[in-house]
Amino acid sequence: MDASRIATVTAEHKLQFPPEILAKLRPGDRYQFSLTETEIILTKIPLSQTDLDEFLEHLEELEPNPNQPTLQEISEIVKEVRQELWSN
Q1: Which of 37, 30, 87 is nearest to 53 (CA)?
Q2: Rounded CA separation 5/18 (Å)
Q3: pLDDT tens sequence across 11-34
Q4: What's the pTM?
Q5: Dihedral pair phi/psi, residue 42, rounded to 5°
Q6: Does residue 4 surpass a pLDDT of 70?
Q7: Which residues contact 30 (CB under 8 A, 6 or more apart)?
């Protein structure tokens, strides 16, 4: 077994990865764990999926914005801008 590919579990139950593995990990990266009888497999979660999931969770936690224009107000603004653009 290649000793440069061995991770060690510390007394605090954290994994110490070898330097060449750590060099490939980036802060904020997320990994999914899969377990079998003899293996723990880490699969990187694509950044776009992570960002979308976090965004949707955050969005659900937000209160409605009282300053958000209504659809009617947005429609009126669009009409005004169109008229300005077409009149030039």
Answers
A1: 30
A2: 6
A3: 999 999 999 988 988 888 889 999
A4: 0.44
A5: -105, 130
A6: no
A7: 44, 45, 50
Phi and psi at 57, nearest 5°, equal -65, -45
Please check whether residue 31 is in contact with residue 42, taking contact to mean a CB–CB distance below 8 angstroms.
yes
The candidate with the shortest Cα–Cα distance to 17, out of 36, 34, 35, 40, is 40
Could you identify the residue written with the tokens 């007394």?
Answer: 11
The whole-angstrom separation of Cα 20 and Cα 18 is 6
DSSP result, the chain: --GGG--EE-TTS-EE--HHHHTT--TT--EEEEE-SS-EEEEEPPHHHHHHHHHHHHHHHSPP-TTPPPHHHHHHHHHHHHHHHHH-
